[in-house]
Structure to design on (200 residues):
Protein backbone atom coordinates (compact mmCIF):
# COMPACT_ATOMS: atom_id res chain seq x y z
CA UNK A 1 0.00 0.00 0.00
CA UNK A 2 2.99 2.30 0.43
CA UNK A 3 3.77 4.16 -2.78
CA UNK A 4 7.08 3.36 -4.44
CA UNK A 5 8.04 6.95 -5.26
CA UNK A 6 5.29 9.40 -4.29
CA UNK A 7 6.06 11.24 -1.06
CA UNK A 8 4.07 13.31 1.42
CA UNK A 9 5.24 15.68 4.13
CA UNK A 10 4.78 14.77 7.77
CA UNK A 11 5.46 17.24 10.58
CA UNK A 12 6.83 16.04 13.89
CA UNK A 13 7.26 18.89 16.34
CA UNK A 14 8.90 21.74 14.45
CA UNK A 15 10.48 19.50 11.79
CA UNK A 16 9.00 18.24 8.49
CA UNK A 17 9.95 14.97 6.81
CA UNK A 18 9.22 13.44 3.43
CA UNK A 19 7.89 9.89 3.74
CA UNK A 20 6.17 7.44 1.36
CA UNK A 21 2.52 8.21 0.61
CA UNK A 22 -0.16 5.55 0.63
CA UNK A 23 -1.38 4.62 -2.83
CA UNK A 24 -4.60 6.40 -3.84
CA UNK A 25 -5.88 4.36 -6.79
CA UNK A 26 -5.68 0.84 -8.19
CA UNK A 27 -3.62 2.24 -11.07
CA UNK A 28 -0.91 3.21 -8.54
CA UNK A 29 -0.03 -0.47 -8.08
CA UNK A 30 2.61 -1.90 -10.45
CA UNK A 31 0.82 -4.12 -12.98
CA UNK A 32 3.85 -6.32 -13.64
CA UNK A 33 4.32 -7.65 -10.09
CA UNK A 34 3.21 -11.18 -9.31
CA UNK A 35 2.99 -10.51 -5.57
CA UNK A 36 1.28 -7.56 -3.93
CA UNK A 37 0.94 -7.05 -0.19
CA UNK A 38 -2.43 -5.56 0.70
CA UNK A 39 -3.13 -4.71 4.32
CA UNK A 40 -6.90 -5.06 4.06
CA UNK A 41 -7.45 -3.75 7.56
CA UNK A 42 -4.64 -1.22 7.70
CA UNK A 43 -1.40 -1.27 9.59
CA UNK A 44 0.23 0.45 12.53
CA UNK A 45 2.65 1.82 9.94
CA UNK A 46 -0.19 3.63 8.08
CA UNK A 47 -0.79 7.09 9.54
CA UNK A 48 -3.24 9.83 8.63
CA UNK A 49 -3.70 13.47 9.52
CA UNK A 50 -7.46 14.13 9.60
CA UNK A 51 -6.89 17.88 9.22
CA UNK A 52 -4.91 17.67 5.98
CA UNK A 53 -6.13 14.34 4.53
CA UNK A 54 -2.49 13.21 4.27
CA UNK A 55 -1.95 9.45 4.40
CA UNK A 56 1.57 8.15 4.90
CA UNK A 57 3.44 4.92 5.43
CA UNK A 58 5.89 5.29 8.31
CA UNK A 59 8.36 2.52 9.00
CA UNK A 60 8.92 1.32 12.56
CA UNK A 61 12.30 3.04 12.72
CA UNK A 62 10.66 6.39 12.00
CA UNK A 63 7.97 5.78 14.62
CA UNK A 64 10.56 4.93 17.26
CA UNK A 65 13.09 7.62 16.34
CA UNK A 66 10.60 10.47 16.52
CA UNK A 67 8.54 9.11 19.43
CA UNK A 68 5.18 9.20 17.65
CA UNK A 69 3.52 6.75 20.04
CA UNK A 70 4.47 8.90 23.03
CA UNK A 71 3.29 12.03 21.21
CA UNK A 72 -0.11 10.40 20.61
CA UNK A 73 -0.38 9.34 24.24
CA UNK A 74 0.56 12.84 25.40
CA UNK A 75 -1.98 14.47 23.06
CA UNK A 76 0.74 16.28 21.12
CA UNK A 77 -0.06 14.81 17.70
CA UNK A 78 -3.16 14.92 15.48
CA UNK A 79 -2.00 12.05 13.28
CA UNK A 80 -3.24 8.58 14.10
CA UNK A 81 -2.61 5.02 12.87
CA UNK A 82 -5.03 3.84 10.20
CA UNK A 83 -6.34 0.43 11.27
CA UNK A 84 -9.69 -1.30 11.53
CA UNK A 85 -10.32 -2.09 15.18
CA UNK A 86 -13.98 -3.03 15.17
CA UNK A 87 -16.38 -5.91 15.65
CA UNK A 88 -17.69 -7.75 12.59
CA UNK A 89 -20.82 -5.58 12.41
CA UNK A 90 -18.91 -2.28 12.37
CA UNK A 91 -16.01 -3.58 10.29
CA UNK A 92 -18.16 -3.65 7.13
CA UNK A 93 -18.66 0.12 7.47
CA UNK A 94 -14.97 0.80 8.15
CA UNK A 95 -13.73 -1.11 5.09
CA UNK A 96 -15.84 1.10 2.81
CA UNK A 97 -13.57 4.02 3.70
CA UNK A 98 -10.14 4.81 2.24
CA UNK A 99 -7.53 3.29 2.43
CA UNK A 100 -9.30 0.02 3.26
CA UNK A 101 -11.69 0.43 0.33
CA UNK A 102 -8.74 0.63 -2.07
CA UNK A 103 -7.12 -2.48 -0.59
CA UNK A 104 -10.39 -4.41 -0.94
CA UNK A 105 -10.87 -3.15 -4.51
CA UNK A 106 -7.43 -4.35 -5.57
CA UNK A 107 -7.96 -7.61 -3.65
CA UNK A 108 -11.16 -8.31 -5.60
CA UNK A 109 -9.55 -7.40 -8.92
CA UNK A 110 -6.63 -9.74 -8.32
CA UNK A 111 -8.95 -12.56 -7.22
CA UNK A 112 -10.94 -12.12 -10.43
CA UNK A 113 -7.76 -12.39 -12.52
CA UNK A 114 -6.19 -15.36 -10.72
CA UNK A 115 -6.88 -18.98 -11.58
CA UNK A 116 -5.05 -20.22 -8.47
CA UNK A 117 -5.87 -19.00 -4.96
CA UNK A 118 -3.40 -19.93 -2.22
CA UNK A 119 -4.83 -19.11 1.20
CA UNK A 120 -2.52 -19.58 4.18
CA UNK A 121 -3.41 -19.31 7.86
CA UNK A 122 -6.88 -17.82 7.41
CA UNK A 123 -9.74 -18.87 9.68
CA UNK A 124 -12.58 -18.00 7.25
CA UNK A 125 -14.30 -16.09 10.08
CA UNK A 126 -13.98 -12.57 8.70
CA UNK A 127 -17.28 -11.72 7.03
CA UNK A 128 -15.81 -8.84 4.97
CA UNK A 129 -13.09 -11.02 3.46
CA UNK A 130 -15.47 -13.96 2.99
CA UNK A 131 -17.91 -11.70 1.17
CA UNK A 132 -15.23 -10.78 -1.40
CA UNK A 133 -14.10 -14.39 -1.79
CA UNK A 134 -17.69 -15.58 -2.22
CA UNK A 135 -18.71 -12.87 -4.69
CA UNK A 136 -15.64 -13.31 -6.86
CA UNK A 137 -15.91 -17.10 -6.75
CA UNK A 138 -19.61 -16.96 -7.67
CA UNK A 139 -18.93 -14.68 -10.63
CA UNK A 140 -16.69 -17.29 -12.24
CA UNK A 141 -18.28 -19.75 -14.66
CA UNK A 142 -18.45 -23.36 -13.44
CA UNK A 143 -15.73 -24.34 -15.88
CA UNK A 144 -13.55 -21.41 -14.84
CA UNK A 145 -13.56 -21.70 -11.06
CA UNK A 146 -10.14 -21.06 -9.53
CA UNK A 147 -8.22 -23.89 -7.95
CA UNK A 148 -8.05 -23.14 -4.23
CA UNK A 149 -5.41 -24.46 -1.85
CA UNK A 150 -5.96 -23.66 1.83
CA UNK A 151 -2.99 -24.25 4.13
CA UNK A 152 -3.84 -24.50 7.81
CA UNK A 153 -2.55 -26.33 10.85
CA UNK A 154 -4.94 -28.78 12.46
CA UNK A 155 -8.64 -29.41 12.07
CA UNK A 156 -9.83 -25.83 11.73
CA UNK A 157 -11.19 -24.52 9.46
CA UNK A 158 -13.08 -27.56 8.25
CA UNK A 159 -13.53 -28.20 4.57
CA UNK A 160 -17.20 -27.32 5.04
CA UNK A 161 -16.21 -23.97 6.63
CA UNK A 162 -14.20 -23.15 3.51
CA UNK A 163 -16.99 -24.29 1.19
CA UNK A 164 -19.53 -22.14 3.03
CA UNK A 165 -17.25 -19.11 2.92
CA UNK A 166 -17.02 -19.58 -0.85
CA UNK A 167 -20.78 -19.99 -1.19
CA UNK A 168 -20.50 -23.65 -2.14
CA UNK A 169 -23.64 -25.47 -0.97
CA UNK A 170 -24.42 -29.15 -0.57
CA UNK A 171 -26.42 -28.98 -3.80
CA UNK A 172 -23.22 -28.03 -5.65
CA UNK A 173 -21.71 -31.46 -5.03
CA UNK A 174 -18.13 -32.45 -4.33
CA UNK A 175 -15.66 -29.56 -4.08
CA UNK A 176 -12.51 -31.64 -4.61
CA UNK A 177 -12.25 -30.52 -8.25
CA UNK A 178 -11.33 -27.03 -7.10
CA UNK A 179 -10.58 -27.19 -3.34
CA UNK A 180 -7.73 -28.75 -1.37
CA UNK A 181 -7.24 -28.18 2.36
CA UNK A 182 -3.72 -28.95 3.59
CA UNK A 183 -3.58 -29.42 7.37
CA UNK A 184 0.13 -29.81 8.18
CA UNK A 185 0.95 -26.09 8.27
CA UNK A 186 2.60 -23.66 5.90
CA UNK A 187 6.13 -24.88 6.68
CA UNK A 188 5.36 -28.36 5.33
CA UNK A 189 3.37 -27.17 2.32
CA UNK A 190 6.16 -26.78 -0.23
CA UNK A 191 7.27 -30.40 0.06
CA UNK A 192 3.72 -31.80 0.00
CA UNK A 193 1.83 -33.60 -2.74
CA UNK A 194 -0.93 -30.99 -2.28
CA UNK A 195 1.48 -28.27 -3.38
CA UNK A 196 2.79 -30.33 -6.28
CA UNK A 197 -0.74 -30.94 -7.56
CA UNK A 198 -1.74 -27.30 -7.05
CA UNK A 199 1.32 -25.76 -8.69
CA UNK A 200 1.62 -28.09 -11.68
Amino acid sequence: MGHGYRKVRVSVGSATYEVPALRRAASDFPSDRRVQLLHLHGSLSFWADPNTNVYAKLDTGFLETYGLWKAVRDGELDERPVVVLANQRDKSDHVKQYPFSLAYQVFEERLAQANYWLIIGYSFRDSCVNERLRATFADREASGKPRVLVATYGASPTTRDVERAMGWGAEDGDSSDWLTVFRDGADALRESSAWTAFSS
